[in-house]
Specification:
Elements: E1 14-15, E2 23-25, E3 31-33, E4 41-42, H1 70-89, H2 94-97, H3 100-118, H4 121-149, H5 160-167, H6 194-199, H7 203-224, H8 226-241, H9 250-274, H10 284-301, H11 315-332, H12 347-355, H13 357-377, H14 382-387, H15 389-393, H16 398-413, H17 415-420
Helix pairs in contact: 1-3, 1-12, 1-13, 3-7, 3-9, 3-11, 4-7, 4-13, 7-8, 7-9, 8-9, 8-11, 9-11, 10-11, 13-16
Length: 440
């Protein structure tokens, strides 16, 4: 989007917990009842897609036994992997292949609607904040300490009073937390952009927080006027894009821009849970979504879609493309209570990604910066430079190293997600019995 340089992802992602009678939560989503043999996920708290539905809405009978929806877990895992790949490669077409941020917001909206149907709004919002904030605080404890040691101070912005006020966004991200651009790194180990690598993806937590706070009102509006409510964010994005009104201050502009780009996805997730999409004739969505996607793609291509300038810099195109993709994915939604045969082999990996989605989202960008700095040192090895320069020039060999380092962050920092969800801390919650996860 025009306000931020990278597509995050974002995922904050979300992860599910153990299959005990307890609930699980993911990165930024609400809690879900644990399923007998499936494990929970991440970015938006626990297991996003529990089986329970709103009684008044003719709940989807396909979800049996109140277990996790593994189809949603699969979408979240793919979204998270795509976010990491995008931040390494920077390919403008990746968000077109799979719009991760729109998908993650939709999954979070679905889980939020399910929780609001079962518990008081204040309790649900408080639970979401409890799961969202501790991982951010841990990131800030490490990152802000490093920035301060590197010389970051109130004088950096020229307005010490505002600096201290903005510093509070590391505690409650109602707006983007400040960070020390150009903070000195560690030569050969951490690049000078490490603070930006850490701070830029936090727009997702800020947007997620506002969606959570507004969800009780959004759900009420959705039940009264379903489609006008769902389409309102797209209309807002169009109004901002074509200058129908001006917004004072970049912070407010960023909030409205993100709401316009992804608000419809969040509302589609809520609408799916409420049964709004199921009331449409089956042919409507497959007929309408491709047309909306085509308009979004046309707008992106006519506004210079290139590497370094993609859907993140074009909120209106983002809103259309993500809306169409999410609409189709929710329409397909097979609601797996158990994995299909061919996907069972990926159970542990997908469970882990869901269970530590917030940690992976928050730390992966820093891991990319560290691996890139280490890779630059390999140019000092003569035989690599002379005989295998492709190893140094291609980003592909870096990808395994990035995931390995991200795995280290999962072990070192991921336990805070369990504490935030009031679960026993686990180092590697991939669903194995005795490996930090509980299986039924």
């Amino acid at each position: 989007m025009g306000i931020r340089p990278t597509d995050t992802t974002s995922e904050l992602p979300e992860l599910p917990p153990p299959p005990l009678p307890a609930r699980s939560t993911g990165p930024l989503g609400p809690e879900q009842p644990a399923s007998g043999s499936e494990q929970p996920g991440s970015d938006k708290d626990s297991a996003r897609h529990g089986a329970e539905r709103h009684p008044a809405e003719g709940q989807d009978s396909r979800k049996k036994g109140g277990g996790r929806d593994r189809y949603f877990d699969l979408l979240r895992a793919i979204a998270l992997f795509r976010v990491v790949l995008y931040h390494l490669m920077g390919w403008a077409w990746l968000p077109l292949v799979f719009p991760s941020m729109g998908v993650m917001f939709a999954l979070a909206g679905n889980l939020m609607a399910r929780s609001l149907a079962r518990r008081p709004a204040l309790e649900v919002v408080r639970g979401r904040l409890r799961r969202l904030l501790p991982p951010l605080w841990l990131l800030g404890a490490v990152g802000v300490t490093g920035m301060l040691l590197g010389g970051w101070s109130p004088d950096e912005e020229g307005h010490p009073g505002w600096w201290w006020l903005h510093f509070a966004y590391w505690v409650l991200p109602l707006s983007d937390p400040p960070y020390a651009e150009g903070a000195p790194g560690v030569h050969g180990l951490i690049g000078d952009d490490w603070a930006a690598d850490m701070g830029v993806p936090l727009w997702y937590l800020r947007a997620y927080l506002w969606f959570v706070l507004l969800s009780p009102l959004l759900l009420r509006a959705l039940r009264r006027l379903p489609w006008p409510t769902i389409l309102a964010p797209v209309a807002l994005s169009a109004a901002l894009e074509f200058g129908a009104f001006s917004v004072p201050g970049w912070r407010l502009e960023a909030q409205l821009s993100d709401f316009g780009a992804f608000g419809a996805c969040w509302l589609l997730g809520m609408a799916h849970q409420e049964g709004v999409l199921r009331r449409l004739p089956r042919y409507v969505i497959p007929s309408l979504a491709p047309a909306v996607a085509a308009v979004g793609l046309w707008y992106a291509l006519t506004h210079d879609l290139t590497e370094g300038h993609d859907l993140d810099d074009m909120p209106f195109a983002q809103s259309l493309w993500s809306f169409a993709a999410v609409l189709l994915l929710l329409h397909i939604s097979p609601s797996w209570s158990q994995w299909p045969g061919r996907l069972r082999r990926w159970d542990r990996l997908i469970t882990l990604l869901n269970s530590r989605a917030v940690t992976i989202y928050l730390w992966h960008n820093v891991c990319i910066g560290v691996v890139e700095a280490l890779w630059d040192r390999l140019w000092g090895i003569p035989w690599l430079e002379n005989d295998a320069p492709w190893v140094l020039q291609s980003p592909w060999p870096q990808l395994p190293a990035i995931w390995l380092l991200t795995g280290v962050c999962v072990v070192c920092f991921g336990w805070v997600e369990d504490l935030a969800a009031r679960r026993r801390p686990r180092l590697w919650p991939d669903g194995r019995v005795g490996a930090g996860s509980h299986r039924g």
